Structure of ASCH domain-containing protein:
Amino acid sequence: MTRPDYAVGQAWTYRTRPGEEASRVAIRHLDREPEDGDVFHVSILDVKLRNHRLPGGLQPAMQHAAVSRASLDASLLARAGDADADESWRDGYAVWRQAYDNGDAGVFDLPLADVLGYIEMVVAASGEAR
């Protein structure tokens, strides 16, 4: 099987969580890191990410996640055109970049649906809104 040519600016369908079938992944940026190889920075759009910190308790997108090629290989299904031009991911990337450079952040190697579940678990563990 040929390895897909993932590139910045692409949108993809992926193996979503139930109820999020319209969700898409946008590849925003690519870093090549000595320790982790290709690190893809993606946005996961049109999701229902549980987040007690937001009004209504749902977040419609995960603007930034740093993921490995293995994560994309396990998740992506088909090209869905070009990614939108939204720049909201840049704030999350800046936070990740600083933490990564300090040794305090890593790269997800999980399927994208599992990344969303993990983020929900971390947010829930941070305590309920008061």
Remarks:
- Residues 10-125 form one domain.
